[in-house]
Amino acid sequence: MRFSILFTVFLLFSKLSRAQEVTTRSGRSLSPKPTRFNLTVTGRIRDTQTGENLPFAAIGVRGTNRQTQTNVDGYFTLLTVPSDTVTLTISYLGYTNRDYRLEPREAVKELLIDLTPTIAQLDEVSVTGQRTEVMKAGDGIGLIKLTPRNLTKLPNIGERDIFRALQLMPGVSAANESSAGLYVRGGTPDQTLVLFDGFTVYNVEHLYGFFSAFNYNALKDVQLYKGGFDARYGGRLSAVAELTGKEGSRKQFNVGGDASFLSVNAFVESPIGKKLTVLVAGRRSFQGPLYNKLFEQFQTGNDNRPAQNAPAGTGRRGANQQQTTQQVSSYFYDLNGRLTFRPTDRDQVTLSLYNGQDNLDNSQDVSITFGRGMQGGTSANTGNLVNTDLSNWGNTGSSLKWSRRWNDRLYVNSLVSYSSYFNQRDLSNSVTITRANNPPNNLRFGTFEDNKLIDWSIKTDAEWKLSANQQIDFGVQLTHNKIDYAYSSNDTISLLSKNDRGTLAAFYAQDQIRLLDNRLLIKPGVRLTYYTTTKQVYAEPRLSATYQLTDRLTLKGAWGRYYQFVKQVMREDISQGSRNFWLLSDGGTLPVGAATHFVGGLTYETAGYLFDVEAYAKNLIGITEYTLRFAPQVGQGLVPQETFFNGTGSVRGIDFLVQKKIGNYAGWVGYTYAMAQNRIAAFSDGPFFANQDVRHEGKLINTYRIKRFDLGLTFVYAAGKPYTSVVGEYSIQLLDGTSRTFTNPSGKNANRFPDYSRLDASVTYYFKHGSIGASVFNAYNRTNVWYKRFTSVSDGQESQLVVTDVTYLGITPNLTLSYRIH
Prior knowledge:
The chain is mainly beta and about 800 residues long. The protein has a 22-stranded antiparallel beta barrel.
């Protein structure tokens, strides 16, 4: 009897096991025989929560080297897939990897494959094999990928900032708290092309550079190319940052927001019918404790002291300041909007809008009395000083894009875009003096600056898959730029006035060839640009290659020629820190910038770890600075003129990265050794270190997941940057009767600031509808020097030069609450 029961159980177990062996998600066999071979598989990779397409996701065929990635709109095509029983592997930063098995007789076209965000997994149980990457490197030459959804893992000053996160990678300097711009491999921020949904963004900063101008709630994907980038990008000498905005949920209405000690941030997204989605996001600062601290930190280094800047004739002896009224009014905001319309499965139309602006006002009114009446009674002379300190800057950008997949092999994007930028600075004093029995005397002195830029562009990009091993990319672009710049002193003297106009017409073509069983990828390409101002054609050949030596080890290299026609000129102001402004190259006073890149390196990667190293060299020509340090000799007067000085530059460096990608503890160690030098004959007989030269820079990033908590700890160290000091000064009489003081500088960048370092820490708790996070910036309160201010103090007979260290932020705590309603 017992044997009969056991035998019956055995038969049932066997039948159940066989049933499981031949059952799949659709009830078919797990090991069926293939019915089709050499297939073309197409589809889209989507976010399972929102239904949004995921750009630049990786798709491969298990057991082979065949692979591709989705394009900017989330579509992919795999040619000559071996059979209809293979397994596709899909991965995307910030999402759980997925295997997708093809089935016989099922469709292999228009597949919809969903990925699950890792941040949504709030299980108490630790999953040691879970990928917890914040950023990803090593996939291409100089390529860094970032998903904004994982920024909560990193400490922040007051905002979850994508550019500040990118600065934690090797090759991108993190020692510039006063700039959210990307100093990539010895380059300046203007040498990095920033694209947001296809339009160019010319200013990337809020609040004097402490934060970037991009709201992470409006972004889906960020890719940074640190050098050797493809022929489809042009107009910059150093790097490319490509930002892709969120489309808006295709499944449900979502609303959410963030609040911190600095700003409030909200978004709403929703489907409208079956074919249209919308997303709107906005952010605005408020004058809380953190905002005021940042604002005052900057103003400490840039206050406009009327006593030190008073013109001849106003005098200070005997003056008595009686009343000061100061009404600080300052804020920043940005708005994002995006409409995505899908009339068919092959077409997508996208309208993207962006506007961001800073308004900073630190002006004050001062009532003064001086002298005494004839009888020694009440004061007979009065005055009023309006001390103006206004800074306003901002961007507006928009793009209208039509994307169409004409067939399985041809995909085309066509785009029309508009971008504008303005920067206005009024740093002046207006004095009204009333003496007894005399009419009022009005004086105005100071500096005024106004920079405006407009960019209209039309471009078309095409991807044409010739075969499983070859793809041709080509496109055309037409851009018209209009730039105006005015810089004046004392309301009468125009120090510089420019009105630039120019049009660029570009064509590019690039081949992607895979050889040796897909282990070798070669990308030859060329970009041709005609510039109407110089009436010349500029050829930019490019070549890159990667070779997969083993399953874990990849060798890579790139070479290319790059030109820049719209440049941000550095205006040297030794006593108050440098300021920059945009101009168009004219081929003469402002030459077209050019750079040649050489990049070589290797990547060793396992499932859990990554080691990446890249060495690079850049040779540059057309480096430009503007300065007033070379004034005419005393007694000859100051003749307003353009004082641009041009030269060459070079960068040599190497980046190292070691990253742990999987498990509750993850992070990376990055180190960069680099040397950036310029040659400008007017400044030095030989080469001198560029302002952005940082010889050594190391970063240690740690993240740890414990249940519903994310702990973050980052440490940054950087060698001191060079600067030019002041060794003396002199004054000359201007044409309007006032005087202007000029400095005698030391050797160009002959000095070094102290080394920079800081430690940041954070803890974030996740709950069902959001998170709450606390962070501390500069946890051990390190005093890091921003720049040195040189001030002359005189008693009328002798003067003394006072040197003040203007420092960055000390210890700065922050608290951020994020809430989402799905």
